[in-house]
Design a protein that fits this description.
Length: 134
């Protein structure tokens, strides 16, 4: 699946941090209705991708370190998910029996066309534009 629940939660976490205020996992989870254990896992992925930092200490929490206008849905999806294909047949390592050498089947071609549109659209607006409704 292209946009998983985990990707959705990743976008919600970015939204929760969009005001550049430090937030705990509990605060993020409460505001965005994300289970705590899931939020920790996703925040780790967002941290590894350079979107957020974890500030330690009694007044610690997570903070967005990348400007909202430089983050796109596509970026968050890439950071969270390793499966960005509309259908398994689009994976380069998939050996679909309906495809012949150098010539994918008609359904594969249509899925590929749709996937390209989705990828382009996920890069069309940055998170700042989306959050502010621009």
């Amino acid at each position: 699946m292209l946009i998983t629940k985990e990707c959705d939660y990743g976008l919600r976490i970015i939204r929760a941090l969009s005001d550049n205020e430090k937030r705990t996992v509990a605060q993020i989870s409460e505001v965005e209705h994300i289970p705590h254990t899931f939020a920790y896992k996703i925040l780790k992925k967002l941290q590894n991708a350079g979107f957020v930092e974890n500030r330690l200490g009694s007044k610690g929490g997570y903070i967005l370190v990348k400007p909202l206008n430089s983050i796109y849905i596509y970026d968050v999806v890439i950071a969270i998910s390793d499966n960005l294909y509309l259908n398994e047949c689009l994976r380069p390592d998939d050996l679909c029996t309906r495809n012949t050498i150098g010539e994918p089947c008609a359904v594969h071609k249509e899925f590929d066309r749709i996937q390209n549109i989705l990828m382009t659209e996920m890069k069309a607006k940055n998170i700042e534009q989306i959050v502010l409704g621009l």
